[in-house]
Amino acid sequence: MRGHSFLPCDRAFGIIKRSLRHKERLYSVQEYMKLIVSSSRQSDFFTVHLVSGEHVTEFKKWWVQHFKKTALSLETKDRRIPRTEKVSFSISKFHHLTFKKIGCDVPVKTQEFIDGLTKHTFLLKIRPQITVSLPNEPAYGPRQLCINAKKMQDLKKCVQFVPEDEKNKFWDEILQWPTAENVEDEELD
What we know:
Layout: H1 8-21, H2 29-38, H3 59-66, E1 96-99, E2 105-111, E3 119-125, E4 147-148, H4 149-159, H5 169-176, E5 179-180
Parallel strand pairs: 4-5
Antiparallel strand pairs: 1-2, 2-3
Organism: Parnassius apollo
Protein name: (apollo) hypothetical protein
C-alpha cells in the first residue's frame, strides 16, 4: 500500500527481515512467532498474538446497526457539485480513518491511502437510543473456512519436503481443512 514505508511499524518489519535472512526454512506458525519475538535485542520489543477465526469480528453488519448507512463527505456535499463527483462513505474504500466522537456526531476523516493527498470528512450520526460498543460477533461463525482446492493441492505437494520431525499438529490440521473449487464464488453464511 502506498505510504506504508513511512509508518513506524516498517522499521519493525526491517528488524524481522534481518532475522529471517539467517533462517533457511521455517515449518510452522510457532516458528515464525519465536523468530519475531527473538528478532530484537530488546526482550519486550515484539509481542505476538496468534489470531484465529473467533478473533475476527463482523464489522460490516455492525456498522449499519449504529450509523447512518449513507453519508456524503462534507467536501462534496454542496449542491453545486455534480452527483457523479460526490463521495459516499464506504468502509472498504478508505484505508486511513481518524475519528473522534463529539456528542452524537462522529466526524471521520478518511484517506484512501496512508497519509494520502485526497482527504474526505464524513459526519456520521449515531442512531438515537443505541449504545455503541465494538463489534463482538465473529465474522466467520463456528464453521471452518474453506481453502481453495488448488491451494490445497500445492500444500500437499509441499508437505512432502517437510522433515518428519517437523511435521506437527499445524500441518495435520491444515491438510484436513475443507476445500472448495473456487472459494471466492462460495456463498458465505
